[in-house]
Amino acid sequence: MTTKLETLELALKNALGEGVAISAALGEVTVVVKAADYIKTMQLLRDDSTLAFEQMIDLCGVDYSTYGEGTYEGPRFAVVVHLLSLAKNWRVRVRVFCPDDDMPLVESITGIWRAANWFEREAFDMFGILFDGHGDLRRILTDYGFIGHPFRKDFPISGYVEMRYDPEQKRVIYQPVTIEPRENIPRVIREETYGTK
Q1: Phi and psi at residue 152, to the nearest 5°
Q2: Where are the bilayer-spanning segments (predicted)?
Q3: What is the dihedral sign for C-alpha 53, 59, 64, 66?
Q4: How many beta carbons lie within 10 A of that of residue 13, not counting itself?
């Protein structure tokens, strides 16, 4: 007797062929696709009646620069998409790696799932991943004048600039960060009866 997970894996292998890597772990199936095949694969996942992934649940960027404590040597940036099939009641994770670390770029899937619009804007804003074909790729969470991409592993914890209101100029100004870096050491309570009374 095959499980639902095995049925999904088999359906994915039959529909997608040899060009993708399919793996299952912890009750979830992951499909890793090449950037050149990304749009074709996503279209197939939605339109193939044996798969029927009609809903995109989530899309996010990933920075693998410190993955494996520095032992990872693959591409730095990836886009991860989670899809749901209501008709089949199963889910799949799709990962596509950006071929160029200096200019991470993949195709936009907004033509397949309109819900990807803001998710792709967030991945652009936070990681600097570009989505070719996106109609309105601009920042969504940070200020328009913000420098850098805050979810990148090499982005400084305190940032580059800070914003404050200047009462003399009567306007908001940007200036270099003036916060001194400090390390918070949590207080550890070692009483055996703490919180029981």
Answers
A1: -70, 140
A2: none
A3: negative
A4: 13
Q: What is the radius of gyration, based on Cα positions, of the chain?
A: 22
User: CA-to-CA distance for 160 and 176, rounded, in angstroms?
Assistant: 6
- Cα 94 from Cα 68, distance rounded (Å): 21
pLDDT tens sequence across 49-107: 999 999 999 999 999 998 888 788 899 999 999 999 999 999 999 999 999 999 999 99
Instruction: Measure Cα distances from 152 to 52, 95, 106, 148, 173 in Å.
Output: 34, 18, 17, 9, 25
Percent of the residues in the chain that have a pLDDT greater than 90, as a whole number: 66
**What is the domain partition of the chain in residue ranges?**
4-141
Parallel/antiparallel/unpaired status of strands 171-176 and 161-166: antiparallel
Res. 174: pLDDT tops 70: yes
Residue 196 has pLDDT above 70, yes or no: no
Q: What is the DSSP string of 33-86?
A: E-GGGHHHHHHHHHH-TTT---EEEEEEEEE-TTGGGGT--S-SEEEEEEEEET
28-33 and 90-97 strand pairing: parallel
3-state secondary structure of 94: strand
pLDDT given for residue 182 in this prediction: 66
Q: Assign domain 4-141 to its CATH architecture.
A: 2-Layer Sandwich (3.30)
